[in-house]
Amino acid sequence: MIQSHLKTLIFILLPPVLLALGMGAAIQGSWLPELPQGLVEALPWLMGGLAGVLAFLYGRTRTLICVALVLLVYLGIMLHIRPMAMAPGTDPLPELGYALMTMLIPVVFMANAFWSERYHLVMDLLLRLAAFGGLAGIAVFLAMNDPENMADLLLTIYVPALHWDAYGMPQLSFWSLVLCLGIMGFFLLRRPSPQWAGQWITLAGIGWMLPQLFHTYAVPVFTATLLLILAIAVIHESFQMAFRDDLTGLPGRRALNERLQRLGRRYTIAMTDVDHFKKFNDTHGHDLGDQVLRVVAAQLRKVSGGGRAYRYGGEEFTIIFPGKTVEQCIPHLEDVREAIEAYEIAVRDESSRPGSKREGRARRGQGKGKKVSVTISMGVAERSQDHPDPETVIKAADQALYAAKQAGRNQVCAAE
Ligand SMILES: Nc1nc2c(ncn2[C@@H]2O[C@H](COP(=O)(O)OP(=O)(O)OP(=O)(O)O)[C@@H](O)[C@H]2O)c(=O)[nH]1
Protein backbone atom coordinates (compact mmCIF):
# COMPACT_ATOMS: atom_id res chain seq x y z
CA MET A 1 0.00 0.00 0.00
CA ILE A 2 2.78 2.42 1.03
CA GLN A 3 4.75 1.38 -2.03
CA SER A 4 1.87 2.15 -4.40
CA HIS A 5 1.24 5.47 -2.59
CA LEU A 6 4.88 6.37 -3.09
CA LYS A 7 4.68 5.39 -6.76
CA THR A 8 1.61 7.61 -7.25
CA LEU A 9 3.37 10.47 -5.48
CA ILE A 10 6.48 10.16 -7.64
CA PHE A 11 4.40 9.83 -10.81
CA ILE A 12 2.46 12.98 -9.95
CA LEU A 13 5.23 15.11 -8.45
CA LEU A 14 8.36 14.25 -10.35
CA PRO A 15 7.60 15.71 -13.83
CA PRO A 16 6.50 19.20 -12.62
CA VAL A 17 9.27 19.34 -9.99
CA LEU A 18 11.87 18.47 -12.63
CA LEU A 19 10.42 21.07 -15.00
CA ALA A 20 10.51 23.80 -12.32
CA LEU A 21 14.01 22.82 -11.11
CA GLY A 22 15.34 22.56 -14.67
CA MET A 23 14.04 25.99 -15.59
CA GLY A 24 15.26 27.47 -12.29
CA ALA A 25 18.74 26.06 -12.94
CA ALA A 26 18.70 27.36 -16.55
CA ILE A 27 17.81 30.85 -15.33
CA GLN A 28 20.38 30.85 -12.53
CA GLY A 29 23.08 29.51 -14.81
CA SER A 30 22.10 31.90 -17.65
CA TRP A 31 21.86 28.94 -20.03
CA LEU A 32 18.82 30.28 -21.85
CA PRO A 33 19.35 31.74 -25.33
CA GLU A 34 18.91 35.49 -25.82
CA LEU A 35 15.32 36.12 -26.85
CA PRO A 36 13.67 39.42 -27.81
CA GLN A 37 12.45 41.15 -24.63
CA GLY A 38 8.93 41.51 -26.10
CA LEU A 39 8.67 37.75 -26.62
CA VAL A 40 9.98 37.02 -23.12
CA GLU A 41 7.39 39.34 -21.59
CA ALA A 42 4.59 37.83 -23.70
CA LEU A 43 5.36 34.27 -22.53
CA PRO A 44 3.42 34.50 -19.23
CA TRP A 45 0.33 35.73 -21.06
CA LEU A 46 0.51 32.95 -23.63
CA MET A 47 0.93 30.27 -20.96
CA GLY A 48 -1.63 31.97 -18.71
CA GLY A 49 -4.12 31.90 -21.60
CA LEU A 50 -3.46 28.21 -22.21
CA ALA A 51 -3.74 27.23 -18.52
CA GLY A 52 -6.80 29.47 -18.02
CA VAL A 53 -8.70 28.06 -21.00
CA LEU A 54 -7.93 24.47 -19.96
CA ALA A 55 -8.94 25.15 -16.35
CA PHE A 56 -12.17 26.78 -17.53
CA LEU A 57 -13.03 23.97 -19.96
CA TYR A 58 -12.51 21.29 -17.30
CA GLY A 59 -14.27 23.29 -14.55
CA ARG A 60 -11.15 23.64 -12.37
CA THR A 61 -11.96 26.86 -10.52
CA ARG A 62 -9.06 26.42 -8.11
CA THR A 63 -6.58 26.28 -10.97
CA LEU A 64 -8.25 29.24 -12.64
CA ILE A 65 -7.67 31.28 -9.47
CA CYS A 66 -4.06 30.05 -9.29
CA VAL A 67 -3.52 31.23 -12.86
CA ALA A 68 -5.00 34.64 -12.01
CA LEU A 69 -2.81 34.88 -8.88
CA VAL A 70 0.37 34.03 -10.77
CA LEU A 71 -0.44 36.64 -13.43
CA LEU A 72 -1.23 39.20 -10.71
CA VAL A 73 2.12 38.57 -9.06
CA TYR A 74 3.77 38.97 -12.48
CA LEU A 75 1.96 42.26 -13.11
CA GLY A 76 2.69 43.51 -9.60
CA ILE A 77 6.40 42.89 -10.03
CA MET A 78 6.74 44.22 -13.56
CA LEU A 79 4.52 47.29 -13.27
CA HIS A 80 4.86 48.31 -9.67
CA ILE A 81 7.56 46.83 -7.54
CA ARG A 82 10.45 46.59 -10.00
CA PRO A 83 10.17 50.11 -11.55
CA MET A 84 9.66 51.80 -8.18
CA ALA A 85 12.45 49.91 -6.48
CA MET A 86 14.82 50.84 -9.32
CA ALA A 87 13.95 54.55 -9.17
CA PRO A 88 16.39 56.74 -7.26
CA GLY A 89 15.27 58.23 -3.94
CA THR A 90 12.95 55.31 -3.23
CA ASP A 91 10.15 55.86 -0.78
CA PRO A 92 9.04 53.04 1.54
CA LEU A 93 5.96 52.19 -0.56
CA PRO A 94 7.47 49.55 -2.88
CA GLU A 95 8.90 47.77 0.13
CA LEU A 96 5.50 47.82 1.79
CA GLY A 97 3.79 46.71 -1.44
CA TYR A 98 6.27 43.84 -1.72
CA ALA A 99 5.73 42.85 1.91
CA LEU A 100 1.96 42.96 1.45
CA MET A 101 2.09 40.86 -1.68
CA THR A 102 4.47 38.27 -0.26
CA MET A 103 2.32 38.04 2.87
CA LEU A 104 -1.02 37.68 1.07
CA ILE A 105 -0.04 35.32 -1.74
CA PRO A 106 0.67 32.19 0.38
CA VAL A 107 -2.44 32.73 2.51
CA VAL A 108 -4.72 33.15 -0.51
CA PHE A 109 -3.06 30.21 -2.27
CA MET A 110 -3.68 27.96 0.70
CA ALA A 111 -7.27 29.11 1.24
CA ASN A 112 -7.97 28.53 -2.45
CA ALA A 113 -6.40 25.05 -2.36
CA PHE A 114 -8.57 23.92 0.56
CA TRP A 115 -11.75 25.45 -0.86
CA SER A 116 -13.13 22.56 -2.88
CA GLU A 117 -15.08 23.13 -6.10
CA ARG A 118 -18.73 22.83 -5.16
CA TYR A 119 -21.02 25.23 -6.89
CA HIS A 120 -21.66 26.11 -10.49
CA LEU A 121 -18.40 27.20 -12.15
CA VAL A 122 -19.27 30.90 -12.49
CA MET A 123 -20.79 31.07 -9.00
CA ASP A 124 -17.75 29.34 -7.51
CA LEU A 125 -15.45 31.73 -9.34
CA LEU A 126 -17.39 34.80 -8.21
CA LEU A 127 -17.39 33.66 -4.58
CA ARG A 128 -13.64 33.13 -4.63
CA LEU A 129 -13.00 36.44 -6.35
CA ALA A 130 -15.22 38.21 -3.79
CA ALA A 131 -13.49 36.54 -0.81
CA PHE A 132 -9.90 36.97 -2.00
CA GLY A 133 -10.51 40.38 -3.60
CA GLY A 134 -12.14 41.55 -0.36
CA LEU A 135 -9.19 40.33 1.70
CA ALA A 136 -6.66 42.01 -0.59
CA GLY A 137 -8.80 45.18 -0.69
CA ILE A 138 -8.87 45.43 3.11
CA ALA A 139 -5.10 44.88 3.33
CA VAL A 140 -4.39 47.53 0.67
CA PHE A 141 -6.83 49.95 2.31
CA LEU A 142 -5.11 49.54 5.67
CA ALA A 143 -1.69 49.97 4.09
CA MET A 144 -2.73 53.17 2.28
CA ASN A 145 -4.39 54.60 5.35
CA ASP A 146 -1.63 53.92 7.80
CA PRO A 147 1.52 52.96 5.88
CA GLU A 148 3.85 53.48 8.82
CA ASN A 149 2.10 51.12 11.19
CA MET A 150 1.54 48.55 8.44
CA ALA A 151 5.22 48.71 7.46
CA ASP A 152 6.11 48.29 11.10
CA LEU A 153 3.93 45.20 11.33
CA LEU A 154 5.06 43.56 8.09
CA LEU A 155 8.72 44.56 7.89
CA THR A 156 9.90 44.10 11.47
CA ILE A 157 12.41 41.32 12.04
CA TYR A 158 10.77 39.70 15.04
CA VAL A 159 13.31 36.95 15.71
CA PRO A 160 16.74 37.82 14.24
CA ALA A 161 17.94 34.22 14.60
CA LEU A 162 15.14 33.12 12.29
CA HIS A 163 15.76 35.73 9.63
CA TRP A 164 17.46 34.88 6.35
CA ASP A 165 18.63 38.23 5.08
CA ALA A 166 20.11 36.96 1.81
CA TYR A 167 16.69 35.62 0.77
CA GLY A 168 15.37 39.16 0.67
CA MET A 169 11.84 38.53 1.92
CA PRO A 170 10.36 40.13 5.05
CA GLN A 171 10.44 37.74 7.99
CA LEU A 172 6.68 37.53 8.47
CA SER A 173 6.13 36.83 4.76
CA PHE A 174 8.88 34.22 4.68
CA TRP A 175 7.46 32.24 7.60
CA SER A 176 3.92 32.54 6.31
CA LEU A 177 5.16 31.07 3.01
CA VAL A 178 6.99 28.24 4.81
CA LEU A 179 3.93 27.48 6.96
CA CYS A 180 1.52 27.45 4.01
CA LEU A 181 3.89 25.28 1.95
CA GLY A 182 4.25 22.91 4.92
CA ILE A 183 0.50 22.53 5.46
CA MET A 184 -0.25 22.14 1.75
CA GLY A 185 2.69 19.74 1.38
CA PHE A 186 1.34 17.57 4.20
CA PHE A 187 -2.02 17.22 2.44
CA LEU A 188 -0.32 16.61 -0.89
CA LEU A 189 1.68 13.74 0.63
CA ARG A 190 -1.46 12.24 2.14
CA ARG A 191 -3.64 12.53 -0.92
CA PRO A 192 -1.50 13.11 -3.98
CA SER A 193 -3.35 14.58 -6.95
CA PRO A 194 -2.06 16.48 -9.98
CA GLN A 195 -4.10 19.55 -9.04
CA TRP A 196 -2.64 19.70 -5.51
CA ALA A 197 0.85 19.08 -6.88
CA GLY A 198 0.40 21.91 -9.40
CA GLN A 199 -0.77 24.31 -6.70
CA TRP A 200 2.03 23.41 -4.32
CA ILE A 201 4.79 23.70 -6.91
CA THR A 202 3.37 27.00 -8.16
CA LEU A 203 3.44 28.50 -4.66
CA ALA A 204 6.96 27.15 -4.03
CA GLY A 205 7.99 28.55 -7.43
CA ILE A 206 6.59 31.99 -6.60
CA GLY A 207 8.52 31.83 -3.33
CA TRP A 208 11.70 31.15 -5.28
CA MET A 209 10.99 33.74 -7.96
CA LEU A 210 9.95 36.71 -5.83
CA PRO A 211 13.36 37.62 -4.43
CA GLN A 212 14.88 37.39 -7.97
CA LEU A 213 13.14 40.65 -8.79
CA PHE A 214 15.88 42.16 -10.94
CA HIS A 215 16.92 39.14 -12.96
CA THR A 216 15.72 40.01 -16.49
CA TYR A 217 14.63 36.47 -17.35
CA ALA A 218 13.65 35.09 -13.97
CA VAL A 219 10.26 36.70 -13.54
CA PRO A 220 8.68 36.29 -17.02
CA VAL A 221 10.28 32.96 -17.92
CA PHE A 222 9.68 31.36 -14.54
CA THR A 223 6.13 32.73 -14.40
CA ALA A 224 5.48 31.11 -17.80
CA THR A 225 6.95 27.83 -16.49
CA LEU A 226 4.65 27.85 -13.46
CA LEU A 227 1.64 28.50 -15.68
CA LEU A 228 2.70 25.64 -17.95
CA ILE A 229 2.88 23.40 -14.86
CA LEU A 230 -0.69 24.43 -13.96
CA ALA A 231 -1.85 23.66 -17.53
CA ILE A 232 -0.20 20.21 -17.38
CA ALA A 233 -1.82 19.59 -13.97
CA VAL A 234 -5.28 20.21 -15.47
CA ILE A 235 -4.61 17.76 -18.30
CA HIS A 236 -3.10 15.18 -15.93
CA GLU A 237 -6.06 15.45 -13.52
CA SER A 238 -8.57 15.00 -16.34
CA PHE A 239 -6.60 12.03 -17.68
CA GLN A 240 -6.71 10.43 -14.23
CA MET A 241 -10.45 11.06 -13.93
CA ALA A 242 -11.03 9.29 -17.24
CA PHE A 243 -8.81 6.29 -16.50
CA ARG A 244 -9.18 5.85 -12.74
CA ASP A 245 -12.21 4.49 -10.95
CA ASP A 246 -13.38 7.10 -8.49
CA LEU A 247 -14.73 4.76 -5.78
CA THR A 248 -11.81 2.35 -5.49
CA GLY A 249 -8.89 4.32 -6.92
CA LEU A 250 -8.03 1.38 -9.19
CA PRO A 251 -7.60 1.90 -12.93
CA GLY A 252 -11.03 1.61 -14.52
CA ARG A 253 -12.54 -0.09 -17.56
CA ARG A 254 -11.06 2.37 -20.04
CA ALA A 255 -7.55 1.73 -18.69
CA LEU A 256 -8.23 -2.02 -18.83
CA ASN A 257 -9.29 -1.81 -22.49
CA GLU A 258 -6.11 0.09 -23.32
CA ARG A 259 -3.98 -2.49 -21.49
CA LEU A 260 -5.70 -5.40 -23.24
CA GLN A 261 -4.62 -4.01 -26.61
CA ARG A 262 -0.96 -4.04 -25.59
CA LEU A 263 -0.63 -7.56 -24.16
CA GLY A 264 2.08 -9.77 -25.63
CA ARG A 265 1.88 -13.42 -26.63
CA ARG A 266 1.68 -14.84 -23.13
CA TYR A 267 -0.62 -13.58 -20.40
CA THR A 268 -3.21 -14.66 -17.86
CA ILE A 269 -6.40 -12.90 -16.90
CA ALA A 270 -8.38 -13.40 -13.69
CA MET A 271 -12.00 -12.27 -13.30
CA THR A 272 -13.03 -11.60 -9.70
CA ASP A 273 -16.48 -11.13 -8.18
CA VAL A 274 -17.58 -10.40 -4.60
CA ASP A 275 -19.77 -13.23 -3.29
CA HIS A 276 -23.42 -12.57 -2.41
CA PHE A 277 -22.85 -8.87 -2.75
CA LYS A 278 -26.50 -8.11 -3.49
CA LYS A 279 -27.44 -9.70 -0.17
CA PHE A 280 -24.65 -7.77 1.55
CA ASN A 281 -25.95 -4.48 0.16
CA ASP A 282 -29.52 -5.34 1.12
CA THR A 283 -28.48 -6.25 4.69
CA HIS A 284 -25.90 -3.56 5.46
CA GLY A 285 -26.74 -0.78 3.04
CA HIS A 286 -25.08 0.65 -0.04
CA ASP A 287 -22.56 2.78 1.90
CA LEU A 288 -21.01 -0.20 3.64
CA GLY A 289 -21.17 -1.99 0.28
CA ASP A 290 -19.03 0.81 -1.16
CA GLN A 291 -16.61 0.50 1.75
CA VAL A 292 -16.32 -3.23 1.05
CA LEU A 293 -15.52 -2.54 -2.60
CA ARG A 294 -12.73 -0.17 -1.48
CA VAL A 295 -11.30 -2.81 0.87
CA VAL A 296 -11.47 -5.51 -1.81
CA ALA A 297 -9.81 -3.15 -4.31
CA ALA A 298 -7.04 -2.28 -1.82
CA GLN A 299 -6.27 -5.99 -1.34
CA LEU A 300 -6.41 -6.74 -5.07
CA ARG A 301 -4.02 -3.86 -5.69
CA LYS A 302 -1.47 -5.66 -3.52
CA VAL A 303 -1.52 -8.81 -5.67
CA SER A 304 2.00 -10.17 -6.14
CA GLY A 305 3.51 -11.96 -9.14
CA GLY A 306 3.41 -8.92 -11.43
CA GLY A 307 -0.40 -8.77 -11.56
CA ARG A 308 -2.31 -5.53 -11.96
CA ALA A 309 -5.90 -5.06 -10.82
CA TYR A 310 -8.64 -3.07 -12.61
CA ARG A 311 -12.24 -2.39 -11.72
CA TYR A 312 -14.19 -4.12 -14.47
CA GLY A 313 -17.52 -2.67 -13.34
CA GLY A 314 -19.92 -3.05 -10.37
CA GLU A 315 -18.48 -5.63 -7.94
CA GLU A 316 -16.32 -7.25 -10.63
CA PHE A 317 -12.55 -6.79 -10.92
CA THR A 318 -10.00 -8.01 -13.44
CA ILE A 319 -6.36 -8.88 -12.77
CA ILE A 320 -3.88 -9.10 -15.63
CA PHE A 321 -0.62 -11.03 -15.35
CA PRO A 322 1.58 -10.31 -18.38
CA GLY A 323 4.00 -13.10 -19.32
CA LYS A 324 2.54 -15.62 -16.84
CA THR A 325 0.70 -18.93 -17.07
CA VAL A 326 -2.38 -19.88 -15.03
CA GLU A 327 -0.28 -22.26 -12.95
CA GLN A 328 2.16 -19.48 -12.03
CA CYS A 329 -0.66 -17.07 -11.10
CA ILE A 330 -2.82 -19.30 -8.91
CA PRO A 331 -0.68 -19.02 -5.71
CA HIS A 332 -0.76 -15.19 -5.97
CA LEU A 333 -4.53 -15.19 -6.49
CA GLU A 334 -5.02 -17.56 -3.56
CA ASP A 335 -3.01 -15.16 -1.34
CA VAL A 336 -5.33 -12.28 -2.23
CA ARG A 337 -8.46 -14.38 -1.81
CA GLU A 338 -7.32 -15.44 1.67
CA ALA A 339 -6.37 -11.87 2.62
CA ILE A 340 -9.86 -10.65 1.69
CA GLU A 341 -11.54 -13.51 3.56
CA ALA A 342 -9.53 -12.64 6.68
CA TYR A 343 -10.13 -8.88 6.48
CA GLU A 344 -12.71 -7.63 8.97
CA ILE A 345 -14.58 -4.39 8.41
CA ALA A 346 -16.08 -2.60 11.41
CA VAL A 347 -19.77 -1.79 11.02
CA ARG A 348 -20.69 1.56 12.50
CA ASP A 349 -23.83 1.35 14.58
CA GLU A 350 -25.70 4.52 13.65
CA SER A 351 -27.69 4.55 16.92
CA SER A 352 -24.55 4.55 19.07
CA ARG A 353 -22.44 6.90 16.95
CA PRO A 354 -20.05 9.08 18.99
CA GLY A 355 -21.26 12.59 19.63
CA SER A 356 -17.93 14.17 18.77
CA LYS A 357 -14.73 13.42 16.87
CA ARG A 358 -12.81 13.22 20.16
CA GLU A 359 -15.21 10.60 21.51
CA GLY A 360 -14.93 8.70 18.22
CA ARG A 361 -11.13 8.71 18.48
CA ALA A 362 -11.26 7.53 22.09
CA ARG A 363 -13.55 4.63 21.17
CA ARG A 364 -11.54 3.57 18.15
CA GLY A 365 -9.84 0.21 18.53
CA GLN A 366 -11.99 -0.84 21.50
CA GLY A 367 -13.56 -3.49 19.26
CA LYS A 368 -17.10 -2.91 20.50
CA GLY A 369 -18.66 -2.62 17.03
CA LYS A 370 -19.85 -5.48 14.88
CA LYS A 371 -17.45 -6.69 12.24
CA VAL A 372 -18.23 -8.09 8.83
CA SER A 373 -16.19 -9.73 6.13
CA VAL A 374 -16.75 -10.83 2.56
CA THR A 375 -15.30 -13.44 0.25
CA ILE A 376 -14.51 -13.38 -3.43
CA SER A 377 -14.58 -15.93 -6.22
CA MET A 378 -12.11 -15.94 -9.08
CA GLY A 379 -12.00 -17.45 -12.55
CA VAL A 380 -8.66 -17.52 -14.34
CA ALA A 381 -7.61 -18.27 -17.92
CA GLU A 382 -4.50 -17.83 -20.06
CA ARG A 383 -3.91 -17.10 -23.71
CA SER A 384 -3.89 -20.36 -25.68
CA GLN A 385 -4.86 -21.76 -29.08
CA ASP A 386 -8.47 -21.99 -27.94
CA HIS A 387 -8.40 -18.46 -26.51
CA PRO A 388 -6.15 -16.51 -28.86
CA ASP A 389 -7.10 -12.92 -27.91
CA PRO A 390 -7.98 -10.95 -24.73
CA GLU A 391 -11.75 -11.09 -25.43
CA THR A 392 -11.81 -14.91 -25.58
CA VAL A 393 -9.47 -15.19 -22.56
CA ILE A 394 -11.83 -12.94 -20.57
CA LYS A 395 -14.78 -15.06 -21.69
CA ALA A 396 -12.99 -18.24 -20.55
CA ALA A 397 -12.08 -16.58 -17.19
CA ASP A 398 -15.74 -15.56 -16.81
CA GLN A 399 -16.86 -19.16 -17.36
CA ALA A 400 -14.31 -20.31 -14.77
CA LEU A 401 -15.68 -17.66 -12.39
CA TYR A 402 -19.17 -19.04 -12.92
CA ALA A 403 -17.81 -22.52 -12.12
CA ALA A 404 -16.22 -21.14 -8.91
CA LYS A 405 -19.61 -19.70 -7.89
CA GLN A 406 -21.35 -23.00 -8.66
CA ALA A 407 -18.77 -24.92 -6.66
CA GLY A 408 -19.62 -22.97 -3.50
CA ARG A 409 -17.83 -19.56 -3.94
CA ASN A 410 -14.73 -18.28 -2.05
CA GLN A 411 -12.36 -20.10 -4.39
CA VAL A 412 -10.17 -19.77 -7.47
CA CYS A 413 -11.14 -21.84 -10.51
CA ALA A 414 -8.99 -22.26 -13.63
CA ALA A 415 -10.49 -22.48 -17.11
CA GLU A 416 -10.38 -25.94 -18.66
N1 LIG B 1 -22.54 -0.72 -2.87
C1 LIG B 1 -22.36 -0.94 -4.18
N2 LIG B 1 -23.00 -1.97 -4.78
C2 LIG B 1 -22.79 -2.19 -6.08
C3 LIG B 1 -21.93 -1.38 -6.85
N3 LIG B 1 -21.92 -1.87 -8.12
C4 LIG B 1 -22.75 -2.94 -8.15
N4 LIG B 1 -23.27 -3.14 -6.92
C5 LIG B 1 -24.22 -4.16 -6.48
O1 LIG B 1 -23.65 -5.45 -6.62
C6 LIG B 1 -24.71 -6.40 -6.66
C7 LIG B 1 -24.33 -7.51 -7.62
O2 LIG B 1 -25.13 -8.58 -7.36
P1 LIG B 1 -25.28 -9.84 -8.30
O3 LIG B 1 -24.58 -9.62 -9.60
O4 LIG B 1 -26.73 -10.18 -8.38
O5 LIG B 1 -24.52 -10.99 -7.62
P2 LIG B 1 -24.18 -11.30 -6.09
O6 LIG B 1 -25.24 -10.87 -5.14
O7 LIG B 1 -22.81 -10.76 -5.84
O8 LIG B 1 -24.17 -12.88 -6.04
P3 LIG B 1 -23.10 -13.85 -6.62
O9 LIG B 1 -22.26 -13.12 -7.64
O10 LIG B 1 -23.89 -14.95 -7.25
O11 LIG B 1 -22.29 -14.33 -5.46
C8 LIG B 1 -25.97 -5.64 -7.07
O12 LIG B 1 -26.86 -5.62 -5.97
C9 LIG B 1 -25.46 -4.24 -7.35
O13 LIG B 1 -26.39 -3.25 -6.96
C10 LIG B 1 -21.29 -0.29 -6.21
O14 LIG B 1 -20.52 0.48 -6.79
N5 LIG B 1 -21.53 -0.11 -4.87
From TrEMBL:
This is diguanylate cyclase. SUPFAM superfamilies: Nucleotide cyclase. GO terms for biological process: cell adhesion involved in single-species biofilm formation; negative regulation of bacterial-type flagellum-dependent cell motility. The chain crosses the membrane at residues 42-59, 64-81, 96-114, 126-144, 172-189, 217-235. Residues 348-359 have a biased composition (Basic and acidic residues). The lineage of its organism: Bacteria, Pseudomonadati, Pseudomonadota, Gammaproteobacteria, Chromatiales. The keyword Zinc does not apply. GO terms for molecular function: diguanylate cyclase activity. InterPro entries: Diguanylate_Cyclase (IPR050469), GGDEF_dom (IPR000160), Nucleotide_cyclase (IPR029787), Rev_trsase/Diguanyl_cyclase (IPR043128). Pfam families: GGDEF. It catalyses: 2 GTP = 3',3'-c-di-GMP + 2 diphosphate. Residues 348-390 are annotated as: Disordered. PANTHER family: DIGUANYLATE CYCLASE DGCM-RELATED, REGULATORY COMPONENTS OF SENSORY TRANSDUCTION SYSTEM. Residues 360-371 have a biased composition (Basic residues). Gene3D superfamilies: 3.30.70.270. Residues 265-416 form the GGDEF domain. Its EC number is 2.7.7.65. It is an enzyme of class 2 (transferase). GO terms for cellular component: plasma membrane. It comes from Ectothiorhodospira marina.
